[in-house]
């Protein structure tokens, strides 16, 4: 089987909620979340949702990631806070890739 392509080249990015549906801003039950492409403005508004730790691993700043997830999905934070933790982490870890630096551009 082919390796999954973790980087999305077409936006919006879709993440399926496998464990529990949530309600969106229209009070509709949804089983997937669509995220628009993040920009530098999102980091400026909400802070970087990841930080490199002493071991060189990128850790997720949960509070900032939650705010970024709300901004990118257009779903208000209180609805996202009702997500099953496994679904929340699926979204957060998928988005994390787009906030890590790309060192190939460092000359």
Q: Let me know the average pLDDT.
A: 93
Give the tally of β-strands: 6
Globally, the shape reads globular
Give the N-terminus to C-terminus distance in angstroms: 35 Å
| Helical/strand content category | alpha+beta
Offer a few descriptive terms.
6 strands, alpha+beta, 33% helix, two-stranded antiparallel ribbon, 107 residues
Write up what this structure looks like.
- The chain is α+β, with helices and mostly antiparallel strands and 107 residues long.
- Helix content is 33%, strand content 17%.
- Strands 1-4 form a two-stranded antiparallel ribbon.
- It is globular.
Q: In brief, what are we looking at here?
A:
The chain has 107 residues and is of the alpha+beta class. It is 33% helix and 17% strand.
What secondary-structure arrangement, pairings included, does this model have?
Elements: E1 13-16, E2 22-23, E3 29-30, E4 32-35, H1 40-46, E5 50-52, E6 58-60, H2 62-73, H3 77-80, H4 85-96
Antiparallel strand pairs: 1-4, 2-3, 5-6
Helix pairs in contact: 2-4
């Amino acid at each position: 089987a082919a390796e999954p392509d973790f980087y999305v080249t077409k936006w919006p990015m879709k993440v399926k909620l496998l464990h529990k549906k949530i309600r969106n801003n229209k009070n509709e039950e949804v089983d997937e979340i669509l995220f628009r492409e993040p920009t530098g403005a999102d980091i400026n508004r909400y802070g970087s949702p990841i930080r490199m730790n002493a071991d060189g691993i990128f850790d997720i700043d949960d509070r900032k990631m939650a705010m970024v997830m709300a901004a990118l999905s257009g779903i208000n934070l209180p609805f996202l806070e009702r997500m099953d933790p496994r679904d929340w982490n699926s979204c957060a870890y998928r988005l994390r890739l787009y906030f890590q630096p790309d060192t190939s551009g460092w000359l």
